[in-house]
Write a structure and sequence with these properties.
five-stranded antiparallel sheet; two-stranded antiparallel ribbon; alpha+beta; 6 helices; 19% strand; Arc Repressor Mutant, subunit A; 51% helix
Amino acid sequence: MSALLEADTANSTTRSTTGRNGRASLNGVKGLGELERSIMDILWAQNTPLTAREVGKHIADRDLAPTTVMTVLDRLTRKGFLLRTRDGRAWRYQPEATRDAYVAELMLDALDMTGDRSAALTRFAQAVSGSEADILRQALTELEDE
């Protein structure tokens, strides 16, 4: 997957966009390391964009240098996971997509790895709980109604 980096100079926003198989995609989905996942968890939990300093305060127990946090945030932006907006001299970071979208993309990537998508989907359907199967049925019904 290749990312196209766009810079909107009017509002100093940087985002990465990409598409795959006709659906929106998070670039580098499989490439999240432990620290990247921790930082994404912090940003997904917030209702507002955070600066690198604010993110660092949320992971103070790891005793990370501020430059390490800034480097990881920059890397996540380049991978397409974060949107960053200029706020004075600092950047504010927020997730490009929801945690649900990220997990769905992981599931789709796993499905892409199989040689038999039908068998994998069938096995998945057999493995989910009854309430999860109901949710899937409802989602499929809503898609058919559109």
